[in-house]
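Handout, page 2. Input:
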Amino acid sequence: MKRKATAVWHGTLKEGKGQLSTGSGALEQTPYTYKMRFEDEKGTNPEELVGAAHSGCFTMQLSAYLGEKGHNPVELETHAEVTLESGTVTSSHLTLKAKVPGIDRDQFHELVNKAKENCPISKLLNADISVDATLNE
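Output:
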């Protein structure tokens, strides 16, 4: 499986602007700028997209592991916070709220850690990856 994305940038770093597109069409010439990335201007940026990718990947991986053990989740909600320091993504912190009926807390946390270590985006990142998980029965 191969997925494709394209970035086009015009101009200097601070005054320029770019567009992001994905092969699926989910992003189609979506704008991004210096201010969107490094300041608080509304819009997307690469680190936000890494966070979306990481939270989505982790959540699907956990769902698979739970299903393999016979515990079908009612809902898994994962938030990611990606930290960029001195030009390097240094961490991705995941916060999970889960509704999984009938699962033992120890088994739940074991599967959470397994998903954290084994989802493909976790394996891609050269960063500290942490997760806080809450199980609501």
